[in-house]
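quick one before i forget lol
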Amino acid sequence: MKKEVKKFSGIIPPSITIFDAKGEIDREKTKKFIKYLIAEGVHGIFIAGSTGEASLMTMEQRREIIDIGVEATSGKVPLLAGTGHNSTRIAVELSKYAQDAGADAVVALLPHYPRPSDEGLYQHYKAVAQAVDIPLLVYSWPGQYGYSMSPEMVARLAKDGYIQGIKDTHEDIDHTAEIIRLTKGEITILEGYESKILPALCLGADGSICTIGNLIPAEVVAIYNLFKSGKIEQAKEKQLAIFPLINLLATRHDSQLLKDSIKLLGHDVGDALMPASKVPSDIIEKVKAELKKLGKLK
């Protein structure tokens, strides 16, 4: 039996995880930051994603961060929990845990090492979907995983009732557009690149899971809200205004630059886990300058 489709929309930041000096999760600081994002108007929270450094966590921490996300959101906004893993067995285990903990949906990255065949990929998501009753969304990011889920595979899994959405972090927006076309708006489509929020919305996407939503949540939320209000010109101005900051953050793939940038705004978010490394001071100064232009710093 197919699950009833539950769609998610708006700006859903992939929340950072705050660690102490020993690499353990700081529960209270992490909850405080998530509550801050909610207060800024975000439409949901994605916990344990790439930005949240889930791939560097122990299994115990993977479960702990899900619990923290559920506690922090407290039903105020939907909580999407990252439960992906290269091992189907572990992805199923984490997804079951997230459902039992109270998450509203699970988001599972593409298993990429070893890279599965198309049939293996299909069976992976089928197994996860059949293990839980809450919605399952795919997380496709070819820049990180080395390949992407084809629009045809997304449509097949959606038609068969195994997935109810996708975070499509694809540099070519044509890829996302084709998914939207093939699935006819019946599943949740979330853009992964903050530079493409408005274009994706115009094509029919439901929203965005964007890293920069941790740093300037209100500004990114404004793009979505203006679009939904039909104020496309103002939304365009907001989208273009954040491009320089987007480009700066894109110079690093770990979470250290993001966390250093958030610290500039007065939040105590600690450092990223190794193998993240120190960010050159000139990059920090450039971020500071962009935040001043956006009115976030004096």
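fyi Residues 59-73 form the longest helix (15 residues).
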